[in-house]
Write a structure and sequence with these properties.
- GO terms for molecular function: fructose 1,6-bisphosphate 1-phosphatase activity; manganese ion binding.
- Its cofactor is Mn(2+).
- Belongs to the FBPase class 2 family.
- The chain is of the alpha+beta class.
- It is globular.
- Helices cover 32% and strands 27% of the residues.
- β13 and β14 form a beta hairpin.
- The chain has 2 domains: 163 residues, Fructose-1,6-Bisphosphatase, subunit A, domain 1 (Fructose-1,6-Bisphosphatase, Chain A, domain 1), CATH 3.30.540; 144 residues, D-Maltodextrin-Binding Protein, domain 2 (3-Layer(aba) Sandwich), CATH 3.40.190.90.
Length: 331
């Protein structure tokens, strides 16, 4: 029986989703060697190198469009870096270790994260701050708005969820810049969950049906924002964002990456991640989303989440690794 091009694409797409899990698993195991050792740069570097090696086995012609800086900042996976063993042209968004401090201090929620889309489908964003707001699926379109007050957004969200505002929980990073957001949220009657780091996991948590978070809001890194958008696409949530610039150089860089577009415009979900999107994350330390790495001599157990926007499928993957037979190093 001869397969059709559509069927062949679907098989390739599914295979790539599983290949991405191997990439995030490799980075998570490598970073886990440094868990609790107080050396965040070493943990990040180990995750980067393991991720690079793992990408060498993935059948794509990949370009990193969301990474950890520019080429002269290597050994990070830099914007513009080429990865993959050859194949279809793909945009790649990576955070080899989201929560480097979390890993260094052995605190919850350190993750390794990768998202994949066909070339041209991810927002090309410099490493600046981004204002974000995220809610989950099965809600009226536009139920929250980045330009509305947090009190108004909580009212609309409570109405849509048929809850009292006092039953809602907003998640945000614990930062001085969020003091007003936190105060206004509590003044409106909602609860607040504060994180020291890790806003990709927080954005996903706002979209999971059994999660403890109803809305994620506040500013964080733009690279993490694009990764969050990829995940939110896969679970049919809603997200709006806007790049924030501290100086003219950052603004120039954003214009250069997206010619002809207003860099300060409000971004919808499909402005950040359009087309068919694949997303994978693996836990380094245990958190609300994923369990962390368990190591035992020459073996390790990983826990990952992998998602596809095309099908809306969310898989949680537990893998048992034997380093006597693995093709990537056991750090």
């Amino acid at each position: 029986m001869t397969s059709t091009p559509t069927a062949a694409y679907q098989v390739t797409d599914r295979n790539l989703a599983l290949e991405l899990v191997r990439v995030t698993e490799a980075a998570a195991v490598a970073a886990s060697h440094w868990t609790g050792r107080g050396q965040k740069n070493e943990a990040d570097g180990a995750a980067v190198e393991a991720m690079r090696l793992a990408f060498d086995t993935v059948a794509i012609d990949g370009t990193v469009v969301i990474g950890e800086g520019e080429m002269d900042e290597a050994p990070m996976l830099f914007i513009g870096e080429k990865v993959g063993a050859g194949g279809p042209a793909m945009d790649i968004a990576v955070d080899p270790l989201e929560g480097t401090n979390l890993c260094a201090k052995n605190m919850p929620n350190a993750l390794t994260v990768v998202a994949l889309a066909e070339a041209g489908n991810f927002l090309h964003a410099p490493d600046v701050y981004m204002d974000k707001i995220v809610v989950g699926p099965d809600l009226p379109e536009g139920v929250v708005d980045l330009d509305a007050s947090i009190a108004a957004n909580l009212r609309e969200l409570a109405r849509a969820k048929r809850k009292d505002i006092s039953e809602l929980t907003l998640c945000a990073l614990e930062r001085e810049r969020h003091e007003e957001l936190i105060a206004k949220t509590r003044e409106a009657g909602a609860r607040v969950m504060l994180l020291s780091d890790g806003d990709v996991a927080a954005a996903i948590a706002a979209c999971l049906p059994d999660g403890e978070v109803d809305i994620y809001a506040g500013s964080g890194g733009a690279p993490e924002g694009v990764l969050a958008a990829a995940a939110v696409r896969c679970v049919r949530g809603q997200m709006q964002a806007r790049l924030l610039f501290e100086d003219d150089e950052q603004l120039r860089r954003a214009r250069e990456m997206n010619p002809g577009k207003d860099p300060s415009r409000k971004l919808g979900l499909f402005d950040m991640a359009k087309g068919d999107v694949l997303f994978s994350a693996s836990g380094v330390t245990t958190g609300p989303l994923l369990r962390g790495i368990r190591r035992d001599g020459r073996r390790a157990v990983t826990h990952s989440i992998v998602m596809r926007s095309k099908s809306g499928t969310v898989r949680f993957v537990e893998a048992h690794h034997d380093f006597t037979t693995k093709t990537w190093p056991a750090y």
